[in-house]
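Each letter names a residue; the fold follows as tokens. Both lines appear below:
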Amino acid sequence: MPSSSFAIKLRDSYEGFAESAGLLSLNDASIVIQYQTKDAIIGLLKSELKVVNIPLAHVEEILFKKSLLGNKIIIKVDDLKYSCDVPGSESNEIVLNVARANVDNAVDFVRAIKLDMSEREYQDALNQAAIG
């Protein structure tokens, strides 16, 4: 799994009066989103650093969308406690904007998680076959 982190920007929050940016990384068992929110007008008022850990077992789907309007990683979780603290998240979906310079890192990141999800699904199927 890739161990590097890369910069992300979260959807605007507080009706566009604040913006959040941070780092996205992957450890052995979870996706880690670190971010800080600051006011969008002057940029002087900043929140404390916040960290959201999303266990890979709770990731339902992860996608990378590349377009002319912006690159995004979309993470869908199976429990709202993992998305409720992320600015701009809607229901169980977390949208993270990725700068053009970090596209390769983002693609590798999504591939690694999808591979982990496939391996876990395969292992579960093997365990079910052994039981049954």
Observations:
- Residues 7 and 61 are 21 Å apart (CA to CA).
- Residues 103-131 form the longest helix (29 residues).
